[in-house]
Amino acid sequence: MYKTFSMELAGRTLSVDVNRVGKQANGCAFMHYGDTTVLSTATASDKPREGIDFFPLSVEYEEKLYAVGKIPGGFNKREGKASENAILTSRVIDRPMRPLFPKDYRNDVTLNNMVMSVDPACRPELVAMLGAAIATSISDIPFDGPCAMTQMGMIDGEFVINPSQEQWKNGDLNLTVASTSEKVIMIEAGANEVPEDKMIEAIYKAHGINQTLIAFINQIVAEVGKAKHTYTSCAVPEELFEAIKGIVPPAEMEEAVFTDEKQVREENIKNITEKLEEAFAENEEWLSVLGEAIYQYEKKTVRKMILKDHKRPDGREITQIRPLAAEVDIIPRVHGSAMFTRGQTQICNVCTLAPLSEQQRIDGLDENEVSKRYMHHYNFPSYSVGETKPSRGPGRREIGHGALAERALIPVLPSEEEFPYTIRTVSETFESNGSTSMASTCASCMSLMAAGVPIKKMVAGISCGLVTGESDDDFVLLTDIQGLEDFFGDMDFKVTGTTEGITAIQMDIKIHGLTRPMVEGAIARCREARLFIMDNCMKKAIDAPRPEVGPYAPKIISLQIDPEKIGDVVGQRGKTINEIIARTGVKIDITDDGNVSICGTDPAMMDKAVEYIKTIVTDYQEGQIFQGIVVSIKEFGAFVEFAPGKEGMVHISKIAKERINRVEDVLTLGDKVNVVCLGKDRMGRMSFSMKDVAQK
């Protein structure tokens, strides 16, 4: 017999069925919020995976298109690889839950969330986040939870708890906050220049709601939760640490790691590793975990120096940003390019402009979102960190970093009416040593301005780190963390924004949550740093968008026609519009409301296309003069095409002032002639005169 647990959440009923389905999983929650239904399961292997030094957690978010009454597009009528939204949702579920598993746990764990129906008023991503937390909490998998998540929107300055799909899309804030019973553990946000104090208010309003959800989950665990299973610990033996310290004293490790050159540091650690491998050559058990032991020793050394002495590995002050550099137009012939360098992190961004018809089409669960006008893509090749491996396309990390930088710029982009282009920016990582996503934000902002995209304001981003001690009050915030501080620290708090407010946040942590002073301090530190980056670096390279797009970018002319005339422009089976395109070499897009976009690189040909379209949609009046081409000769006259697909007849008597016996005596096929409109003849055809042009 299964049990159902329910609570009211933001005016709607959230219910969870336990032991109704998925009984062979370690934990299963059949989630219902409104009419949105998600099946969340948590499963774990019996034994640890051998030969690894990390926790093998896999989080999946499966979008079933039957959930919104769709059949997948394409030839293969079944769901394929995960969509970008599914990958981003998986990452948002992963980030708050991963720190709550034991650090020495090496069993494979999979959290699977399958969306089975979607109510537009209840976003499935939120239901999946809660389902994953509940399924894991009631399972026998070791987990220091529960955690809970709330989404917060904002419309007309008022907060909306767990907004609908429509409110989420059209509001000024997309905020997701995950919490434990005491602290905030994850923040993800996109915002329309929301001020820092307003953002903090929203975060802690969501944190308060999370406490009611955690009480609800605790009730479920108390009634149906399983006892947590025992597991084989993969912790490094303490005696190994002591043996390592006897060979490599703390002072030697400090000297090895405290350098501003990543390559030097890696070489130092390599030398230490070789020394220890030689010392423990006879002890296979210790050799198998030596890499993890050295990592832990290095981590403890870095954390101690930062926390106690405020000494950073590269010698910077706690609030100091690494050396900055920025330049634009480094790549010839592209529509826009910029490079941003911060220490050993370097990003080159290239902007490409195209007609609106080049928008990305989306086949997902949000029926309101079917296309995407602005795209930011992020690439992270192995050479950027001095490694070698084949390129297999973007992974989840690359997609997540690209989406964060994309979200950062969306609030400042011009509308389609102001700038009728599809925009793609691509960030190529040339060198990486910490927070390439924030460097991508800065580079893509400058690239857009260099391409002539009239963005409303400049956007910059920076990451803030954290090292904590024994108590909540014992912590140090680090401005502009490099890779080592990210690996060994407790937090990666990325914030992007303008001078007015925040446009995006992404917070990852490795501990069990942040106190309010930590959150407020990180947000304030990031504001100070991003303003410094804009004023002292980005504005020196380019301080405003260029007044027009570059010479190699397509130009676009927009005009409005009567929607009832669209058929005349398109012609039968597209004959007319294709003829205009063939003659001028432009690209033409027409929307249902009659907006026509003409895209090309040759201004003369674009003007010609405009002339053709205006001619076609004009209600002809007697006395109008056109230039046309003779396309057909008959005994009684000639047919003149005055626009693609548009013809009129010149009667033999209207060709010349003097009488002629044969049309061929004056005209031949292909002749360009000027004609004046006489109205329509008795057969409804346009009637022209050549001989009366001069008079008119």
From TrEMBL:
The keyword Nucleotide-binding does not apply. Its cofactor is Mg(2+). One of its GO terms (cellular component) is cytosol. It comes from the Bacteria. Residues 623-691 form the S1 motif domain. It is an enzyme of class 2 (transferase). It catalyses: RNA(n+1) + phosphate = RNA(n) + a ribonucleoside 5'-diphosphate. Residues 262-289 form a coiled coil. Signal peptide: none annotated. Its EC number is 2.7.7.8. It is found in: Cytoplasm. PROSITE patterns: KH_TYPE_1 (PS50084), S1 (PS50126). It holds the Pfam family S1. GO terms for biological process: mRNA catabolic process; RNA processing. The keyword Transcription regulation does not apply. Transmembrane segments: none annotated. Keywords: Coiled coil, Cytoplasm, Magnesium, Metal-binding, Nucleotidyltransferase, RNA-binding, Transferase. One of its GO terms (molecular function) is 3'-5'-RNA exonuclease activity. Belongs to the polyribonucleotide nucleotidyltransferase family. This is Polyribonucleotide nucleotidyltransferase. It comes from Parablautia intestinalis.
